[in-house]
């Protein structure tokens, strides 16, 4: 530990665990983007709120920038430390602190994994309904810092809907308690919601009180094969008219190809161009309505084939076809777009986007999938082996500028659920006005007066 700044931190906090091994710097200094070479100063692993506060105060005194770190499953470069920042990982702060049966809340430390929080809720006969494929590795703090969505937003909403209270260490090292799990609270600004989706630029989330709800009823999963892209929103409308959908997810034949190559089982004897995975409560009335919607879509030529789960095992197999996409593409280090529009604008946006990408990416394999039920689309572009990474990213960024204009025309967002981070920072102006961005900068200046928290992320 040759850096005198680290020596002073070690002297001030001798119990703080500090990592400086090159392998640790590499591991903790990046997220799933893999586009920036990690170069953090060190990795701090506090075990208490007091230690987090002390580290932030030290960082202010030393002029050291801080990158808060959760499970580092992000896809926008929000957890990248490439300029000598100190990474603060909360992975040692992973406890369930309290359960309140009356208020139906679960209080946890921010480093706890999403799946662990889900399991804890289930142990009390309830559920924390935010869910997505990286549930085993992402942290609660990270999901709150990005307002994570996932596969059941169509039924339960985003993370924001399920955060009753927060404890946050601000950029000056002050601990603030926000929300206090009150159902009604009209006493001034709700700073809790300001911290949600702030990507670690306003404060470090150290504790969260999560709302819980009744466990989901037994459900059925149906996989639908579609003959055309134009049928997608019509099928969604037909099923939503008859059912309270838990999920409605879309993928292409290209996405399915990669998941099957990764070990999943083919669902049909024939290949179809588009697929939908939908879930709904499995009582007799819903099953009847689902079959009626399926038959209606078949008669109208909107659906080519379908299968409904007959067991939990089969349901899991059908979900794997959707949830396994990101993992199956990881080896390609794809360039990712994560966009959203209002559901009513989705048909026109899909048509315009399909035309744009077909014209601009004739040489690339493009993998589409997304949460169509909440207006969120994921676009993954795969790099050809013969192309350099720099040339590939440059070409993709050229097209993203065009995509951002399409989003602006349809009132959409350049980031639906992955945050802005470094990747989408150049396109923030297509989603937010200059006045809004100026207000964001002003808010950051108040909560992080020395600009030490995740500098360079979201905006400069």
UniProtKB/TrEMBL annotation:
Alphabetical keyword list: FAD, Flavoprotein, Oxidoreductase
Cofactor(s) for this UniProt protein: FAD
Protein origin, superkingdom: Bacteria
Stored InterPro entries: FAD-bd_oxidored_4_C (IPR004113), FAD-bd_PCMH (IPR016166), FAD-bd_PCMH-like_sf (IPR036318), FAD-bd_PCMH_sub1 (IPR016167), FAD-bd_PCMH_sub2 (IPR016169), FAD-linked_Oxase-like_C (IPR016164), FAD-oxidored/transferase_4 (IPR051264), Oxid_FAD_bind_N (IPR006094)
Every FAD-binding PCMH-type domain range: 36-215
Family: Belongs to the FAD-binding oxidoreductase/transferase type 4 family.
PANTHER family in alphabetical order: D-2-HYDROXYGLUTARATE DEHYDROGENASE, MITOCHONDRIAL
Protein name (database record): FAD-binding oxidoreductase
Organism: Thermomonas beijingensis
